[in-house]
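Run: sequence + 7,8-dihydro-7,7-dimethyl-6-hydroxypterin -> complex structure.
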Amino acid sequence: MERAYIGLGSNLAEPAEQLRQALARLQQLPRTCLAAVSSFYVSDSLLPGQPRYSNAVAALDTELQPLQLLDALQAIELDQGRERVERWGPRTLDLDILLFGQRLIDEPRLHVPHYQMHLRAFVLYPLAEIAADLELPDGRPLGELLAACPFEGLERLTP
Ligand code: ROI
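>> structure
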């Protein structure tokens, strides 16, 4: 059993509802337990001219292998109407494997830790809610990454 952290994001078709639906699906994954979910956060897109995003982070305890988990997450994205039209384009649902235990994964389909998570407030702050004492595989404490990444522009939604 390993603990994986999943970043959820949506900026189309009622984003908060998309996140809720995705969480219901995560709860049903085989050989997996949904262990924790952060609050939802709203923020501007990193790319100009897109609708605002809703984001959250979930913790999964899973016996799936990383690529099995990736397959399952991509199936959920597709079921929720994600069309891969343009890279970085607006999306109804984005599910990213941020961390998978302490593993370093460098495969064509999957890079873990997620390569920009340390720069993204909409990942780090929800992650800190459910894993305050986390260390990344390179030994950096999450607190150090937070200190370098201002909360600025994030709006935490109270449930
Ligand atoms: N911006 C925010 N705020 N949240 C996201 O999930 C997100 N995802 C993306 C880009 C377009 C980089 N910007 C984002 O893919």
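>> summary
The CA atoms of residues 105 and 112 lie 5 Å apart. The longest strand covers residues 53-62.
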